[in-house]
Amino acid sequence: QSVLTQPPSASGTPGQRVTISCSGSSSNIGSNTVNWYQQLPGTAPKLLIYSNNQRPSGVPDRFSGSKSGTSASLAISGLQSEDEADYYCAAWDDSLNADVVFGGGTKLTVL
Amino acid sequence: EVQLLESGGGLVQPGGSLRLSCAASGFTFSSYAMSWVRQAPGKGLEWVSAISGSGGSTYYADSVKGRFTISRDNAKNSLYLQMNSLRAEDTAVYYCAKAPGLRIRDIVVVVAWGQGTLVTVSS
Description:
The complex is a heterodimer of chains A (111) and B (123). Chain A has no helices and nine strands. By secondary structure, chain A is mainly β. The radius of gyration of chain B is 13 Å and the shape is globular. Chain B starts with a strand and ends with a strand. The A-B interface holds A 2, 32-33, 35, 37, 39, 44-47, 50-51, 56, 86, 88, 90-92, 97-105 and B 35, 37, 44-47, 50, 59, 61-62, 95, 100, 105, 107-111, 113-116.
């Protein structure tokens, strides 16, 4: 059971806009920034969004992030076939055993 | 170009030990916190351990505390993970991960990942 909760799957057709949610608590998302990672099949993860809504250099502006209270969302607009991947949210958790917590991951399928 | 190259994975029996290494290049190694993140087969990501740029601060996930030890040699641009008392549930691909800064809390943002090394714990 992951500390951060994501839907196990999401899907969309090319060109569509899809969103992936990430739900946490006051000790993680509620008090820290959220980061998103993309993992293409058979590869290492890649940083997609950091500090809630910042894109690293090279990440298309089709990808955007937001946070409100103890939840965060990743939005992908103009969906493309190469976006088919697993997506993970992550945040620092300030509970007793402070550490990094990940969501369980969302598998995005482009139909 | 930042490069992280893990090594040391393999098959080990339950209760055994293994030492993972990560050779870093393309950046000033001592200026960045580093961590290990693992992924069990078909499962999600799990943070394992982290170390500050100087090596003076370390953190461990509860699942590995007391069994795993993270260390670094800044002179050799290398990160290590000593894994003892290994269990079947430690079976995973272990990734070496670079933070954007030298503090432990910076490791929540992984700006570079290695290709991973597979550790299989089985009799």
